[in-house]
Design goal:
Blueprint (H helix, E strand, L loop, with lengths): L2 H5 L2 E2 L5 E2 L1 H8 L3 H10 L6 E2 L5 E4 H21 L10
Antiparallel strand pairs: 1-2, 2-4, 3-4
């Protein structure tokens, strides 16, 4: 684990547990978006590390990221369905 991993919140517990800053960096989501998705049941739940700290299994985050391709399909990659603003 390098210095930048420590700075972005990665915890060196068997290389498997990520803290919130690392999850945010890895997914590109904000803290609010992550917790909103957890509440909706659409994101891996955090695991309790201590009485005041939580983390996410890196494997679960990676699987969630991989699943986004199948959820969004080609339309997400190619921008289909996006509203285009017409010039005036």
């Amino acid at each position: 684990m390098n210095g930048s991993d420590r700075e972005n919140g990665a915890v060196d517990v068997d290389g498997r547990v990520l803290r919130l800053p690392a999850v945010m960096e890895r997914t590109g989501l904000s803290k609010a978006s992550i917790y909103r998705l957890i509440k909706a049941g659409d994101f891996p739940a955090a695991i309790r590390l201590t009485s005041r700290a939580v983390g996410w299994l890196a494997r679960g985050i990676d699987e969630w990221i991989a699943s986004r391709d199948s959820v969004c399909g080609d339309s997400a990659r190619h921008g289909a369905g996006r509203r285009r603003i017409q010039p005036r």
